[in-house]
Every structure is written in structure tokens, then in C-alpha cells.
Amino acid sequence: MYEKTTRVRCYKNVFLGLPYLFVLGTGHADFVKKKSRFIGESRYVQSIEEVRFHVKRLRRVHPYARHIVWAFVVGNDRNQQGLSDDGEPHGTAGRPIMDHIEEFMYKNFLIVLVILLLVGASPIKMDLNAKYGASNFHTKGAEAFAKLVKKYTNGEVEITVHAGSSLVKGNPLKAVKDGTVAMTDMFIPFTSGGGKVFGVSALPFIANSYDEAFKLYQTSKHVYKKLFQKWNQKLLYAVSWPPSGLYTKKPIRSIADFKGLKTRTYDKNSANFINMAGGNAIALPWAEVYSALRTGLVNSVVTSSASGKDGKFWEVLDNFTKINYAYPLQAVTINLDYWKSLSKKQQHMMSKAAAEIERVQWQASKDENMAALTLLAKNNIKISEASSRLKKELDDIAQKLLAEYLKDADKKVKDIFRKYHKNRRNAYLSGSLLHVNVAACSLFAAVSGSSAATTATVGKITLHELKKRGYKQSLAIGSLAGAGFLSQVVGFLGIARALSEYIASLQLSPYALIIVVGFMYLLLGMILDGNPLLIEETVQKALNYGVSIGAHPSYPDRQGFGRRSMHVISEDLQAMIIYQIGALDALVRAHEGTISYVKPHGALYNDMMCNEHVFINIARAVARYDKELKLVLLANRNCEKYQGIAKEYEIKLLYEVFADRTYNDDGYLLARDKAGAVISDEMKVLGQVEHMIKYSTITTISGKKYKIAFDTICIHGDNPEVFPLVKKIHVLLGHA
């Protein structure tokens, strides 16, 4: 008797009442029957030694298997045969498998069946080899990944992380391929076996920021996946190292200073680069670098701020030049046999954990870079930016190196760069701050409570400016239509620093951008008969410019633009918020971006601050959607209450103060319909911000002062002088 499933035959044993699975041809099958799981694997083999290898491998992958039964035929004349019942009644396990091989007259063929008991089964245990020590942020990320997998699988899968590469001494790619270890992380550019593809992330000056590094990774990710698959493994996630710089004894001001350098490099690309710059590249294992610096074998190192921190380079070197050489990738992979040993649900949960950790670890890399630079400076390492002259000289070398690299590269590698550079070109718009400022004012005139006449007047001016600067008429009109008819607000975007030399002159770091401009946002409306294409185009441009994106959910108050309070039951409120976050998130993810925070809009924001029940429902909705999203709320004297609720739902909070709003005596904002609610005078705005920064206090309408801790400063974009204001606030922050 047998029942058929896709590519699988299930023979029912008359004695045990259990099905045996045999793959039709070569392949893999997975089947659950009567509280047992059956995993079938069939493949061509050339020798008995190969049979033993695969049986041993499956025993290692499935240490808690109830039985592993098999049969094989080797030799063109089929003269070498074998089978095993592995504890099953004699002739009831291996014999049916052999009968199947005989039926189809297979030669040099092996079929193995793994039987797992599901009821009361022990957790599946896997080891993850981590290349670096326990204090390294990549290793910490692997630990966090292991915890998430255990959590998401309800303890069914347990991963043990082994720091310091204690499980793998040779090539990690080969170790995972052979099943020596289930999982490992690996420094992709330094791993042999990947060809030119593995060198992509380590090429000099291809990516000049974390955003560009992430785009490069997303562009090349599908190629990495296919390559890892050829090595019998699956890519789980990859994270950039902080940008590589140059550690030296003497300052590096121009390419002439490379003469006499004996530089430890980490791959062929970096070695060629140093040699072309006039230095002498030396290949050394990381474990030998410190002693080599001590003895003078090398006197400089190309590596990240994080590696310099871990290596305590301040004991042997004096300078770190931030040339931002490259953002090389560290990847985590899993052996495909181990992967296939997981159920579909377990695979889904592991993939979910991997995606979450990848997102978290890219931010962790940025944080690690800042922390490492701080520690290096604290230990008297002189940190300097590369001069414009040095950048130009090094970039010329990088271009020659890239041209040489691509000479004999295959189509897959060339396509990566073709697509990446095309996306980079599309990321830039002509024009200056003016068209962005005017467009933003148009939108904010619509959303900040202005009348229809005001909106129409500003819109008329804006249409002319947008058309003059080459924007498509459909996009220009669409943006004005969106400005006039926004209703169900689903997202807000912080305004980017890089659209012109004028904005670039602000010199805002990503952190200052969040602190100062994070909530000077463009509001995106999505109504049933609205223009999702406009929103998508705006999202795409925001991602191209490295703009942070967050959701800005509101009450479904179309006529009042979300400024009127509404009574909504808990279930509806949560569903409404999740829906609005999800709508924006879908558009952002479609362009391989992510949203990073949630700030309720209008009356929903006010209700959240004065009604604990509303705050709980918002916190619960954010947690249900994605616990990594930060929830923004007004900095106030009752932070402990909100913090307790946030802790319960495992989400993080960001507290904001307002640069251009007046505070009531209770510490909350004066209603917008009250006289003086919005501060338009530049000196008053700057005075209020300076007081907030220096003394961590807010001043109310009557002069009372409250001590407040805050994370962000909000300034509204409908102020015509918003950009000069932001620049001045940035200066204040720089002196805080």
C-alpha cells in the first residue's frame, strides 16, 4: 500500500503501521505521520566510503533521530549492496528501501530515511561557530540570533554560539559544506571559494556610507545566495563591518605618506590598493597582527574602528585616518542538510529571526563604529578625516583597481556593479534646497491646519517652482493633490541632508539628523481613492537620499485631517494602527528599505499622552507589528509610567521636545488653536532650544520650568526659515 505526495512515495509497513518515504530520483522529502516525522534523502554515490560519509553526516545532523535506516547499491554491475534496519524489526525498514532501488534498477545509489519522534522530542541542537571573541558585536549578534530562534520556535531549536572560531580553524565555507559545523559566520572577502563575488563588498570606495553599503549588499544578495547554495549552505544574514580606515604611527595627509608603510591587509583587493598607493602590503592572520606591530614586522593596518578597538591598537599605534576604504561584509550561513532537518515552520521562524537580526545588526555596526571611535580617542589615538587631496588620490587608485578587477569578472559580478551604479545615479536630483523647501512648505501648509485658500496659494507657487526644476507635471500635480487631500496618514520622512551643496553644508551626522530633523517630516496620505504611486515615488527618493522613514498613524478623520479626537475600541484602534504601519512598510520593503519608528499624528498623539488606555493600545499595536520599531512620545514628567508600559510590551521609546511649540503649565503642548501655540520667531525658537539643551528643562507659558530628559527635537517644516534654523540648532547641539 502507498499514498502519493509530491515527488515522494510513502510505503506503509504492515507490521509497524508507519510510512516509509522514498524520493523518486535524487532529492529530499519531508513527511509527518502518526506523531513521527520522516525525512528521506536520495543521492548518487560512487563508493562505500561516500555512503558512510553521508550516513555519518545525517547522524550528526539528527542526533535525536529514533532510527536512521538506509540501503545502497554501488558499482556498475551493482555487486556492492548494503542495508540497515537500525533497530526496526528485521526486514521491515532497510529491505523496503532496497526493494525500491531494485524496482527502478538504480546504480550507484543511496537512500536514507531518518525517523524522528515528535511527541516529547528533544530540541534540535546546532552549533554556530563565531569567528571573533565574545565581546565583538558580530558575536553578540550571533548570540541574539540564537536567542530569537529559540524564542520563535518555542524552544524546538537551540543554537549554541562558540566564540573565537573554536570550532573552525580552516576555511569556514568548506567546514559548513562538509557539515563539520552546522553554522558559522565568516568574513566574506577573506574567505576562499567565492571568487570575485566575495570581493565585491571590500572593493575600495564603491560604497561611501552605510546606506550605500546596504544598497550594494541588496544588489549582490541574490548572487551570494546562489553561490552559498553551491557550497551546500544557505545565507541567513549578512552585516557590514564599520568602514575600514588606516591605522599608522604617523599622520597620513597625502599619498606620499604611504611610502615606507608596511601595512597588514585583509584580502587581495586591499593588498593591491596599498601596493598601488606606494606602500608594502603584508598578509597576516588577525591573531598575529598585534605582535607584528610590536616587533615592527608591520607598522600600519587597514581595518575598522571596531577591530582597532578590539586589538587595543592605542598601545602600538598613534593615528587613525578615516578614509572609509570599504564596508566589508560578515555573513552567517547554515549547512543545507541541517536546514532541511528543520520543519517548514522552524525554517520560517529561523528566517524571521535572521531578517530581524540583520536589521538590528546593521544599526549595531553604526553604533559600534561610534563607540569604537570614542574609545580610540579616549586612549589617545588621533582620529582624522582624510583630506580632500588624499581622497582624490586614493579614489584615482580605486578606479584603476575596479577596472582591473572587472576585466576578467563574469557577467554576474559585472551586473552587480551595473545595477548598483545605475541606482546610485538615479538617487540624485538636480536642483538646490529651494525646490525641496518650497515643496515641503506646500505640504505642510496643507497639513498644519491652514485654510484651503492658503494651501491653494502656496500650491500655486510650488507648482511653478517644481515645473521650473524639471519635475514631471504628473508628479508635481500629484504632490499638490496629496498636500490638499491627505487624510489617513501612514508615514513621515525626515528630510535628508544631501540634496544640494547648501544642505550638505549643514554637515549633519545620522545621529544629529535624527535628533534635529527627525520629525521635520513630510506627511504621506493614503486614501482609498488617493495616489499610492506618489507615495511610492516619495519613498523611493527618500531611500535613495538616506532619509529615515517612520510611520505616522492617525485617526480616520478625513475632514479634520486627524486633528479631532475619536472614540475607537481597543481592537479597532490596534488594527487601524497596524494597517497604517503595514501599508507604508510594504511600500518601503518593496524598495528594500525599512521603517524605524512610529509617531502618532494629531489627536491620536494628544490622546496617547493624556489617556493611558490609548497609549497601551498603541504600544500593543507597535509590539504586535515589530518590536524593533521605536515609539515616539512627548517628553514629560511621567516618563516612568510610559516606560513601564513599553517594557511590558518589549518596545523602545523616544522622547521628544518641540522647538517651535509653547508648553502649558502641566508640561503638555498648548493647543494649536490657542494664540501663541506655534512659535515663529527665530530668536525665540533658538532660545527655547538652547535652554532645553543646556539645562534639560522646558519653560511653560507662565514661566515655570520642568526638568525633562529627551532624545529628539521636533521642528515643524511649515516654517519658511526651517533650514537655517536647523543649521543653527545643529550648532547648538555641537556645543551641548
Automatic annotation (TrEMBL):
InterPro entries: DctM, DctP_fam, Glyco_hydro/deAcase_b/a-brl, Impact_N, Impact_N_sf, LamB/YcsF/PxpA-like, Ribosomal_Su5_D2-typ_SF, TRAP_DctP_sf. Residues 34-114 form the Impact N-terminal domain. The chain crosses the membrane at residues 104-121, 427-447, 475-496, 508-528. Keywords: Membrane, Signal, Transmembrane, Transmembrane helix. GO terms for biological process: carbohydrate metabolic process; transmembrane transport. The keyword Ligase does not apply. Gene3D superfamilies: Bacterial extracellular solute-binding protein, family 7 (3.40.190.170), Glycoside hydrolase/deacetylase (3.20.20.370), Impact, N-terminal domain (3.30.230.30). It holds the Pfam family DctM. Residues 430-489 form the TRAP C4-dicarboxylate transport system permease DctM subunit domain. SUPFAM superfamilies: Glycoside hydrolase/deacetylase (SSF88713), Ribosomal protein S5 domain 2-like (SSF54211). PANTHER family: 5-OXOPROLINASE SUBUNIT A, UNCHARACTERIZED PROTEIN YBGL-RELATED. This is Uncharacterized protein.
